[in-house]
Amino acid sequence: MSQYQNQQYGQQYNQQYSQQYPQQYTQQYAQANSYFVPGFGISRAIIQSEIQYLCGPDAVVRPYTHQGRDGFLVTTAGPPLTKEQIEDLKDASREYEERQAERTAEQANEWFVNKPVAVGHRSRR
Questions:
Q1: pLDDT tens across 34-79, in order?
Q2: What are the beta bridge partners of residue 33?
Q3: Residue 13, number of CB atoms within 10 A of its CB
Q4: DSSP code string of 58-120
Q5: Considering the domain boundaries, does residue 90 fall inside one?
Q6: I need a surface site. Which of 19, 64, 95, 101 has the fewest CB within 10 A?
Q7: 101 in any annotated domain
Q8: Domain-embedded: residue 117
Q9: Segments forming the whole domain that contains residue 78
Q10: Residue 15 lies in a domain
Q11: Contact predicate 11/3, CB 8 Å
């Protein structure tokens, strides 16, 4: 089956599905919203692991910069994050970063996470 035939079949299927289940179809596909969450204090690992639990199984999060501010773009048809959920993400992120720092400290016998790392130097002439 060619790409064109696949595309036609997909369009026909979507039309049939939307006619059989119009309310469910429009709710599922028409209400996907995207919004920006400032990333200050939120770990990427934490928000990616928790977003589907908080906003629904279709929720997707990715790093994003909005008006010069780093953060995350959340796309979901489910409910948006509340202020309390964002605070919970920040608390979980802080705990995650502390665990990571402790793990690193055990290996290096130091607790400073952002310690400069020496790399090979070339002499300048």
A1: 999 999 999 999 999 999 999 888 899 999 999 999 999 999 988 8
A2: 76
A3: 10
A4: T-EEEEEEETTEEEEEEEESSPPPPHHHHHHHHHHHHHHHHHHHHHHHHHHS---TT------
A5: yes
A6: 19
A7: yes
A8: no
A9: 32-108
A10: no
A11: no
